[in-house]
Amino acid sequence: MDTMKIFTYVGAVTCFTFLVKVARHIHCYLRPSSLHRSCPPGKDSWALVTGASDGIGLGFAQELCSRGFNVFLHGRNRQKLLRVQEQLKMQWPTSKTKIIVFDATKPTEEMAEIVREVGNVNLTVLINNVGGATGVIATEYLKLEDTTHQQVQDLVSVNAVFLAQLTRELLPILQKNAPSVILNMTSAASNGIPWLCVYGGTKGFVRSFSTALSAEMRAGGHDVEVIGVIVGSVKSPGNDVDEGFFIPSSRIMARSALDRVGCGRSQLWAYWPHRLQGFVFEWMPERLLQLVLIRQVSTLIATRDEKKKRT
After folding, report:
1. Is 232 exposed, middle or buried (0-12, 13-18, 19+ CB in 10 A)?
2. What top-level branch of life does the organism fall under (predicted)?
3. N or C: which end of the chain has fewer CB within 10 A?
């Protein structure tokens, strides 16, 4: 076989592999969601959403109510949760809601209280959404050496430890009530964004945790789907940016994540324009990517500081 034929075959295989990957990506965003399996007609099905006071968590609560679920609303501020509960009751009077107040920065053995709050209801969906840096550190972007010991502890607790411990506590219930779904919200920061070292590290944990737990459920024959949902920039109270093609509202982000249920992936970019941005992380050389991220984050910090001056 001459060299030209070898290159021809290698090129054909490469093109075929690329087209298969593209087709799989497109199918993931076009296929209908199978979330309805976890909420059959005539049966009271419940979902638990952590960090449901506002932002993406509130978006999940709204979307789940609109799809026939009853919802446990978790947060650490009872007054905020009561306002959300009243809002949901007005919009979807047939959906039941219950409040669970628990500080995610302090995941202790008392988390068994959450299991007791859930009780014997038909819990089939767990949305591990609580996280971020808001309320933990004064500013989202911070050099590692400028963070305190307690800030690092709290960032790890709220973004990783609480998620792992809550999932551990609720997993037997979700297995018993299968088919069930666990959505773990992770972030583009897991790819290594400067001035987000600790936060990005915890989101890297969530991605690995989701993939491993998905395999564990399959190995045990449990009909529990686990997806690590990778999130880019989203307009929310903690991220004061303008909506656009690459920046959805919190509810659109939540809707996109629920629409991906049943896609067969253990982690993915749920909002398809974020997937386009994700290709940059995968294809750009690391040194060049770092320079781009440094410039982008520096611009975001400057914009944030300018807004603070004006207000």
Report:
1. buried
2. Eukaryota
3. C
Separation of CA 2 from chain center: 51
Coil vs helix vs strand at 119: coil
Task: Copy the structure tokens of residue 79.
Answer: 């007054």
Tens digits of residue pLDDT in 39-50 = 998 889 999 999
Domain boundaries, the chain: 34-285
Cα separation, 232 vs 216, whole angstroms = 27
Give the chain's end-to-end CA distance (angstroms, integer). 71
Pick 22 or 81 by higher pLDDT.
81
Of 147, 246, 155, 135, the residue nearest 200 (C-alpha): 155
- pTM of the full predicted structure? 0.90
82-91, 93-102, 162-171, 276-285: which range is least confident on average?
276-285
Higher pLDDT pick, 12 / 299 = 299
Fold of 34-285: Rossmann fold (3.40.50)
Residue 135, pLDDT > 60, answer: no
